[in-house]
Amino acid sequence: MALRSSRTVMSFATSQKFSLWRRASRGFSASTGELPHGDSVSRTGGELSSPELIQHEKLYSAHNYHPIPVVFARAQNAVVWDPEGRRYLDFLSAYSAVNQGHCHQKILDALWEQAQRLTLSSRAFHNDKFPTFARLLTHTFGYDMMLPMNTGAEGVETALKLAKKWGYMKKGIPKNKALIVSCCGCFHGRTLAAVSMSCDNEATRGFWPLLGGNIKVDFGDTDALEIIFKEHGDNIAGFIFEPIQGEAGVIIPPEGYLSNVRELCSKYNVLMIADEIQTGMARTGRLLAVEWENVRPDVVILGKALGAGVIPVSAVLSDKEVMLCIGPGEHGSTFGGNSLASAVGIAALEITLEEHLPERANELGQLFKTALQKMHVHHPHVIKEVRGRGLLNAVELHPVRSSQVSAYDFCLALKERGVLAKPTHSTIIRLSPPLTISGEQLEEGVEAFSDVLEQDLPLLKEQSRARGGEPVREPCDRCGRVSGLRSHHDKVGKIQG
């Protein structure tokens, strides 16, 4: 009898917890007994509407993002649907994480098949998928070895540690003296090491002290880079860069920059580290963006599309001379190289090669950029510049003070016309659809962009004015930059920390 009573109590308690969870999942407030905004019921059958879901995220999640107000509920290739069934074209691709398109069947099959067999062993043991993944990845990109991680930021951390270890072991840099050179305007992630290389005050302020041992140089300026190498070269372990700066607004360096960087790094015995997390895996019309100048870096960082949008997968590639500087116990990850990630990584690479995604990105990218440039010609008072390579493109608007149109408001208008893009800074719209997008869908996106320019512009100006105009951009705390490139004689080459 006592046992039955105990079970009854436990069942009641469990029932109460489940009831509270159900109420919370539907937006019920335990303090007021009401749903947010006074709603008495959810949209259908307990499902939440887009506004309800956005409200829940605002209430229960940290405010470290400012997303476009649309909710993804389902996706296929380049198309996504919200909970209400509205259809959109994805022109962001999760910052190039879904180059192969949303929910590619080969990826899902690999994920499902592997998930039923083995998901994780950790690197404390071997598994039967990781060696195949490692072999395919290194053979595909032409390097001796790889080191698996999960996120892009972890890949950057790995490359930095690898460069420093190489610097001490092989180059003979004195203890605690290793330096890393990075570019003004760079974006390498949100970890402390990554933001310590950043020129973005939002990324750095309030997270002091930043890591020392960093030197900044203007992106695209090899004269300034050589000055730094001459002054500090004996202690410089690596130069890390994005072949195209994505977060900065799809900034493409001058022709010949990458090959000149290669020559300088070889001359001064500095590791050339290419962050290809966004630009790699065929995004720019080549398997790697550095291939546009036939350059082979010492270290390559891959991520995002290596996991095809279904699981985080990243990796660092290098040759044995560099990679074997790290020994057992000196670096690792519980999940890096797990069976599930390896299976997905294999499928992601196979799709990239089998479906000729580099060639596809190059061909569609040329058509897309040409269409955007025609809009620039017809709307020079709104569009300042169109730039890009492959299917990584950006449209830069004139500052709000002159055109009275912000990139965020432009993206909101695009959303209303069924196209999803995301601004960077206040004037730049990034446009990077899945590489599997059809020509017809690409044309549909171009038409929506044109309609915003032709029909929505007066309303956009009103919205931008209502938001108070363009925010005042403060100079960077570390390099003094507000915008644009500057002579290397001004603060370039200063060691941070």
Automatic annotation (TrEMBL):
Its cofactor is pyridoxal 5'-phosphate. Pathway: Amino-acid biosynthesis; L-proline biosynthesis; L-glutamate 5-semialdehyde from L-ornithine: step 1/1. The keyword Signal does not apply. InterPro entries: Aminotrans_3, Aminotrans_3_PPA_site, Class-III_PLP-dep_AT, Orn_aminotrans, PyrdxlP-dep_Trfase, PyrdxlP-dep_Trfase_major, PyrdxlP-dep_Trfase_small. Keywords: Aminotransferase, Pyridoxal phosphate, Transferase. It is an enzyme of class 2 (transferase). The keyword Transferase applies. It comes from the Eukaryota. CDD domains: OAT_like. Its EC number is 2.6.1.13. One of its GO terms (molecular function) is ornithine aminotransferase activity. PANTHER family: AMINOTRANSFERASE CLASS III (PTHR11986), ORNITHINE AMINOTRANSFERASE, MITOCHONDRIAL (PTHR11986:SF18). Belongs to the class-III pyridoxal-phosphate-dependent aminotransferase family. This is ornithine aminotransferase. It comes from Riccia fluitans.
